Amino acid sequence: MSCWTDYESPIGTLTLIAREGRLRRLLFPGAVPLNTDLRQPEAFADARSQLDEYFAGERRTFDLPLEPVGSPSQRRVWNELGAIPYGTTISYKELAERVGMPGEAREVGGAVARTPLPILVPCHRVIASNGDLTGYGGGLDRKRALLDLEAAPRLF
Asked: For the whole model, what pTM was predicted?
């Protein structure tokens, strides 16, 4: 059985969806959670706490049980997204090379666009080869806000 909750963030109300204690989706405002059975805020205490720390600039990585659903090639791309260091960006082309799919930046871009756990799996850190911000499921304003958050100087 899956459950869900809303999370009030600086970039809008996010919806978290989990199944058997593992996060499966993070939805941006306006997206409708489908196939969810139960609103259960208490099941998301760790996720809420870690997101609070991230948005406060106190957390660089997440340590949560994740279960994104996708094809093997999508999961390979999503795993590599997690290796992009906080506060840095890479191009779709570079990401394609890292996952062993050189010359397939469009296919890799499609996998990035379908990341079911944005922010937790930092798909916002992928940009065009020329440095431009390109598509983001939460909108380019949110992508810019996340990149700006990570670029801000912090005392760690």
From this structure: 0.91
